[in-house]
Amino acid sequence: MTTKENVTFESVSNTRPELAEFIEGAANVANILSPIVPVLSIITTLIKDIFAIHEKAQFNKKIIESIINRIIAVEVAINLLKSRTKCDEKFQDLKYQKSFLKFQDSLEKIKVFAEEVAQLRVVETFLCAKSIEKKFNELMEEYEACMKDLSFTMIIVFDEQRRIDNDILNNALAKMVKVLRNVQ
């Protein structure tokens, strides 16, 4: 007869091998994902924050919408990673972990940019149009590089999205010029 003190992992594994394998597998997944999980949570929060900025934006909503169009696909990929139950060797790779940190940093910059653009009125946007366009393009290039490092490139067709974003940006800026000319 076995008492509580005598019950060990080995005795549990001998009586229920499937349970022991499951526990060992879960422990391995937790160990592998442990450095990534907090970063994934921060990334998820940043994505939600950018969506909230878009919803609350009174100005330049189209510019922020271009950012949202790229982030939507990433949100799906991040949720898939968070729910992954099988071990994946790339999570153990320090380079891959650093790529997630760079991705987090990129999203933080995008969030700040979206906040700033959402507060710019028509005149301010017009005066800063070239600067906005330059910053937008820099952020999207950095974002795309992170996506490639993380192997998320299969989700987004960058060239097509870049064309769409440029059209949206140019149309939004052209409308502002029209509004300013009508005001004068």
Automatic annotation (TrEMBL):
It comes from Gigaspora margarita. Keywords: Kinase, Transferase. One of its GO terms (molecular function) is kinase activity. One of its GO terms (biological process) is cell surface receptor signaling pathway. This is Kinase-like protein.
